[in-house]
Amino acid sequence: MPQFVLLRHTLPADSPRASHYDLMLESGESLLTWAIEALPTAGSIVAEELPPHRLVYLDYEGAVSNNRGSVARVDRGELVWLQQTSDEYCARLQGEQLRGEFRLRRTSAQFWELSFPGES
C-alpha cells in the first residue's frame, strides 16, 4: 500500500527559503512533494509543488546534502489514492496525526491549494 510522510524541513539561517514542512505522497517509484508553511489542519493552505523525491525519504531523518538543512519526521502512514490527475489529487491518509481525506488542487503552475477537512 502506498505511504505518505510529513517532514519538518529546517533550513540554515542563511537560506533564502524559510523552514517549512514537506508533504510527500508515494506514487509509483517516487514521492510527489509539496512544501507547506504550517501543519495541515481543517481548512485550506497554500502548497508549493517541489520536484519528486526519492522513496528513501519515507524513512530518512537527518541532514540534507549540500547544506540544505535537515529533516525530521512529523507523521507517516498509509495513503489510499482516490483521484490522481494533472491538476488535482485526492487521497485518504491514515497516519498518527493526519487522518482523513484531503484534496490538492492546482491554482497555478507551481502552487496548489491543500484542503484537509480532518478525520473522516
TrEMBL record:
Q: Which InterPro entries match?
A: LigD_PE_domain
Chain ranges of the DNA ligase D 3'-phosphoesterase domain: 17-106
- What is the protein name given in its UniProt record? DNA ligase D 3'-phosphoesterase domain-containing protein
Q: Can you name the source organism?
A: Anatilimnocola aggregata
